[in-house]
Specification:
With 302 residues, the protein is α+β, with helices and mostly antiparallel strands. The protein contains 7 helices and 16 strands. The protein has 3 domains: 66 residues, Roll (Structural Genomics Hypothetical 15.5 Kd Protein In mrcA-pckA Intergenic Region, Chain A), CATH 3.10.290.10; 78 residues, Pseudouridine synthase (2-Layer Sandwich), CATH 3.30.2350; 133 residues, Pseudouridine synthase (2-Layer Sandwich). A hairpin with a 4-residue loop joins strand 11 and strand 12.
Length: 302
């Protein structure tokens, strides 16, 4: 049976091809695009283009029924393993700021794999398939700290826009090798090698800017606060290594492991702009993620 429904607020603003791929993942892309091209997909009884953006309250007709694996598999996609509950920094109906532990992926890398976002769906007992909560920034598996998760379609679009426009301030804390200067800026372009999952300083790469200030130093180790003005993969790790102060435990970029079992890098805080498009509860406010135990000892000792 064909399916007919009204566009929800969470779906509003999305391209129709991407919306349909999300809702009917079992339909081959070629068949989905053909249905749009031949007019089997109609919005308010009119033919559409793949890049047409839908609006709340519009009436959508598609040739597929409502037997969607995306919805049936919700329980299958959550592991039977009972995980520790996610540590909440702040939560409301708009977003959820989580203190991600080191060792946990932000997004799953395999089907049914463990990750922060699959644990979010598990804790929320999420069954809807018109929208799924999503993070607006990612942390490396072994980086701990604050991750912003959007809980509605409008919040995902608006927060992602603020991230792109660099209006959400992201502060990290790290332990690095050597006696670093009191403060500075690192303005070096970064190029990612997809095959090796490594990043290097390269003139042909993307522009990247990191600001830092020293908190303390002791026994040839410094603790620093780092602001990522841009958000390139591995940015803090590569930039600090490039100026001769690799992060402790970051073997990939030259950091001495010492007693550290992972790179000692933590997303310490996120600060939202005083923006009228944001809820008053988070507008202009800073949210901090407590340091994990493996980093506390470095900071406490200094």
């Amino acid at each position: 049976m064909p399916k007919e429904f009204y566009i929800t607020g969470d779906q509003s603003g999305r391209r129709i091809d991407r919306l349909l791929r999300n809702m009917w993942p079992q339909v081959p892309l070629g068949a989905l695009m053909k249905a749009i091209r031949t007019g089997e997909v109609r919005l308010d009884a009119k033919k559409v283009r793949p890049d047409t953006r839908v609006g709340e309250g519009q009436f959508l007709q598609v040739p597929w029924n409502d037997d969607r694996p995306a919805e049936r598999n919700t329980k299958e996609n959550t592991s039977s393993i009972i995980h520790e509950r996610l540590e909440t920094i702040y939560k409301d109906d708009y977003l959820w700021i989580i203190n991600k532990p080191a060792g946990l992926l932000t997004q799953p890398d395999t089907k049914n794999g463990d990750s922060l976002i699959t644990r979010v769906l598990e804790e929320l007992k999420w069954t809807r398939n018109d929208f799924r909560p999503s993070t607006v920034q990612r942390l490396d598996r072994n980086t701990s700290g604050a991750v912003i998760t959007a809980l509605t379609g409008p919040s995902l679009r608006y927060l992602s826009e603020l991230i792109r426009e660099r209006k959400i301030k992201k502060i990290y804390r790290a332990a690095v090798a050597g006696e670093i200067k009191d403060s500075g800026e690192i303005d070096l372009p970064l190029l990612k090698d997809q095959a090796g999952n490594t990043v290097m300083v390269d003139e042909s790469g993307q522009s990247a800017l990191t600001k830092y200030r020293k908190i303390a130093s002791f026994k040839k180790i410094s603790t620093v606060e780092v602001e990522l003005v841009t958000g390139r993969p591995h940015q803090a790790r590569v930039h600090l290594a490039a100026i001769g102060h690799p992060i402790i435990g970051d073997k990939k970029y030259g950091g001495d492991a010492g007693q550290a079992k992972r790179p000692l890098l933590h997303a310490y805080s996120v600060t939202f702009p005083d923006d009228c498009g944001l809820p008053e509860t988070i507008r202009g406010k800073e949210f901090k993620a407590p340091l994990p135990k493996d980093m506390e000892e470095y900071f406490n000792e200094m």
